[in-house]
## 1
Amino acid sequence: MTEQLIIDGNKAAASDGKTFDVYDPSSGDVLAVVAKATKSDVDRAVDAAHTALESRAWGGAPPAERGRIMMRIAHTLRDRAEELATLESRDNGKPLKQARTDVQVAARYFEFFAGIADKIMGNTIPLGPGFLDYTVREPIGVSAQIIPWNYPIQIGARGVAPAIASGCTVVLKPAEDAPMTALRLGEIALECGLPAGVLNVLPGMGPEAGAALASHSGINQLTFTGSVEVGIAVAKMAADNIVPVVMELGGKSPNIVFADADMDTTATGVANAIFQNAGQTCSAGSRLLVERTAHDELVARLSERAIRMRVGPGVSDPDMGPIISKKQLETVDNYVKIGEREGARVAAGGARPSDAALANGYFYQPTLLDRVSPDMRVAQEEIFGPVLAIIPFDDLEEAIGIANRSQYGLVAGIWTRDINKAMTIASRVKTGQVYINTYGAGGGVELPFGGYKKSGYGREKGLDSLASYTQIKNVCVRFA
Ligand code: NAI
Ligand code: MG
């Protein structure tokens, strides 16, 4: 059965009837056949979103009612968590345990922003006697959202929930590599009472449906998560229509470890930060900066873990699943070879697993690249796979210098018992988030998230995300 587009509350085939195959990365088998949205489908979806916006059935509804419907979506995501997690695991390849967490985090986004729907407030601005000046935060309009394949349900919810809490309507384009749970999210939202046209879901190809959406004159805002290259292209398309953009473009985030850190929790934190989702995480801790005196011990601990990790199909709930696609697998393997040519040493992994049962899937071993120097390509470029670049340092200043010697600036982790070191780095590292003695905080739904430098601009998650989905109207009244 073909999975259909969701436009104006209805399931629809693509205008030209075409479909594309979605693969299970654990086996290379076809998981689903999905309608492939065309430019004319994008036109229909943007029209539907615009009509839904103008009808005020959503944006004009009592804010508390918007919140109740969003809370229903949160409950339904939780009620159907096992089904959704299994689907996410098959589609993306991630271990079932991680997919379960993703569904809970998606539910949490709807819950968090449900509670905000009736608390989006303005200001009064004192102008003296005879004046009342106030601001109102109105929905920005039709939000176009182009999301990647690495965390489809989480990133789908991360953009949709604040947008609809603000009274916006949405056209969501999931990635061609993993579109399934975004479609389920669209179905669930309708079942929970979200009016037709408020959330349209259009799986399709980037250069076709994605570009048609980003360049559409009927959208009022664009949220993009993906590569820097495509981010630049879509920002230019949006610029032609003066459409503001939120860009989340990944990174090369450092975990900075001092010798005085608790090595048990640090090794666990550093390993999870790179091997979660097989390293295909925008905020992956893909550089380990380790104080030289702790280097050998930490690398030994990480190697032991990496070698012990069970790699297998996501639904068998291993420690690590496959890479999303053959192409991405080749990219990862190629980077490891580049690293070796540059003089890095493979301390663990560095190849596909030998297990014949995994031969058809896109598996790669958890990999440690040791003796990396800060200017090597493997220290500078986003690999987007389970490959950790390990760089020793001798003192705090050097650590800060290496951490900031990057075109990216998404997240930094700091591991030390010394509060002075931790706070010095937190204040000087050029990243949008800093974690001290942890890396992440259960999905981070409540925390503003976004990049410095080429990691992007604008903030998602938390209350700060509302700035993207609202526009401020100032009303000045003279009553003297
Ligand atoms: P991508 O940037 O091509 O894809 C992200 C989204 O953009 C998808 O929905 C795709 O269909 C869409 N897209 C692609 N070309 C488009 C175009 N011309 N116009 C409009 N939309 C378009 O990322 P891809 O190819 O899947 O991965 C390549 C690299 O990008 C990865 O190796 C990784 O380094 C980075 N990446 C970063 C992510 C993050 O979380 N920040 C997520 C996915 C990829
Ligand atoms: Mg691409």
## 2
Amino acid sequence: MTDPDAPIPARGLPLSARAPGKCIVFGEHAVVHGAPELLFAVDLYTQVFVRAAEVTRLNADPEASSRNGYFRAALELGWPAGPPVDVRAVSRIPRAAGLGSSAAFASALAAVFESARGGTTRSALAQRSFEIERGAQGVGSPGDTSAVVGGGYLAVNGGAGEPLWTVTSGDQRWVVRRVADPGWVWVVAHSGIPRSTGDAVRAVGQRLARPDGPEVLAQFASVATEGIQAVGRGDRPRVAELMRRNQELLREVGVSHPRLEALLEAAAPVAEAAKITGAGAGGSIVALPVPGKETELVRRLARAGGLPFVVRPAPEGAALVES
Ligand code: PMV
């Protein structure tokens, strides 16, 4: 295992890099508005292979930069005056599922570009990866991109100790800290319903602009603040209780979906808790299995129509794959 805080070294093309996906335990949506969030990098990866070429292409598609906003933003922000590049991307992270496929793609590609431009620090990579994702999505927080750059468990706008980095956008700033890994196994299940993160974030923004919005946001913040502490001390019963409260708040702001509710119901008998993870309105749920019941949980979620994965934290964030 490499040092998860290691900088990105200078290398020449051809280059390859990979980045993990992510799973949000507490605070999605509210983090966009400055509240705390807890998330971890998951051991499903996107890997990119980049070499100099005559024409810029992504997976053999020369039109990809007009079709794919993440690719376009990565080229514009990360490779502004660079020569054409042929990029191949392979991923085990399901797309549009709330598991960080776009953050992983953005940060793996940014790691290659930064390396080819002379290397960079991990905190600069976190900022750049966020700018790429936000450039493509138009809205959002740096939670996802920080998790896939940092690896392990991270708190945004919460936790204790020295910050790993601070990410900014205009007047907004998010402070990112490491949280100790409690050593738990999680189960994530994709509902199969694709959705747009940008649309869900904008809808929740409108909901939070209503008169009771500040009160709802304060409840999100208090659940996530306590959740960060509870994960840090490995307190499963408290984490489970807070996940249930977080799920109620996500229902309240309108991002649940009948298919997600069906998965939560299927998980209930063998999970200490389960909730939406990511933007919702489709996408995925995350469950904390009753110890020893992981396989049964996976079976129940599959029977309820989900695509389940057992996930563990990926200790290492985005990194070059040296051959
Ligand atoms: O795109 P997703 O489903 O991984 O969701 C990201 C989490 C949000 O808080 C909804 C948005 C954000 O950028 O933080």
